[in-house]
Write a structure and sequence with these properties.
Bound molecules: protoporphyrin IX containing FE
Number of domains: 1
CATH topology: Cytochrome p450
Radius of gyration: 21 Å
Strand order of the largest sheet: 1-2-10-7-3
Largest sheet: 5 strands, mixed
Structural class: alpha+beta
CATH superfamily: Cytochrome P450
Length: about 400
Amino acid sequence: MQMSDFRAPAFYADPYPTYERLRAAGPFVQLGEKVWMTGRYEVAEAVLRERRCGKFFLELVEAEYPREQAHSSAFAAIARMIVNKNPPHHTRLRALLMKAFNATQVEEFTRLARDATDQFLAGLPPAGSADLMRKFAIPVPFSVILNLLGMRPGDSLRFADDLRALGPAFEAFGLTAQQIAAASTAADTLSYIFSGELRKRRQKPGTDLISRLLSVEIEGDRLTDEEIVANCIFLFAAGQDTTAGMLGNALIALHRHPQELARLKADESLLPRAVAECQRYDNSLQVTARMVLEDMEFDSHRFARGDTLLISVGAANRDPAKFEQPDRLIIDRTDQDSRMMAFGGGIHYCIGARLAQINLQVALSGLLRTLPGLRLGDPAKLRWRPSYIIRGVESLPGTW
Ligand code: HEM
């Protein structure tokens, strides 16, 4: 297999036949000189927990680009984000971020998700048609994160474009000088906006997440302003496309399985398990990566420091060695939450998992209740995003 197998229009439309080949080809499949991928659940889980593997973002960027570009503000900001840290820096940062994040109660997440869901459902006509991504799935999670941070809805207009321009820099490889410059301008603008928010909260602290990040402390240790700014930007980067994409994927999966959809509509208590099953069946985040930090032998393979291990969460979640009838959507699978791998594993397990689950449950139930006659456009005509990392549709036409 080659990297190009994961960068083809047919793969974007339906990655699961390729994942079947990936799992069959072995525990690890070499895709490039120093790049390997696994699609087997047990192996994926073990790699995510492996202490000899971790993050390498700055080193990768320094090896790939001239010094000036490698040290541009886009890459510098991304290197400060928790997802690119290794212990002991990761341990410290995660403890501080979790303390601030966990202080938000489930009721608060639910209220924010309900307010956003109601707001965007009210904007839909009682009968008609719309692009459900643009009118619902994208703005709902955006509004939730914005409100969690205590920012005003109008702020979203100011930085949605900047977040988009910063996006390519997360992949580290293959950016043109122009893309790096655009990502760095975006990083500067975003840093300016969030630094302003920090100043406002210092003058007038509230109960929002930015205020809590400013005050959180563990044995005298606090977050620096640079850390707060970079990680607030990361909350949007990590939580927006993933939740929006997942809402779309869940709607598509349920409408392709009308019996399961009918069962869910008849019994809303199935909602948490149904959302988890939709994530197992077609998650919005398909791949995560680890770098080999020291030469090692793993599962009878020899890896060298600097090798990249791509973990296909999407393939692992359809592994027949782990799940019975993995290609079927069964919304009341038992023990689903703990077994599917949608939120990663090991020390980088998703901080926003609870928020995402609540957001998905509230938004999905609101939409299904408000638009009981919803029909989606022809599945064959859906345009999937051209990414092997994020899985989601560009638009989702719906009629009711
Ligand atoms: C359906 C929605 C979501 C999915 C599928 C998802 C998935 C993931 C995955 C797979 C990871 C692990 C990355 C790695 O191993 O390198 C991760 C990490 C993370 N996620 Fe999420 N996520 C979602 C929503 C959110 C939300 C809503 C937030 C917060 C607003 C969030 C914040 C984070 C953070 C901060 C990390 C990094 C944790 C660390 O490095 O210790 N995520 N997410």
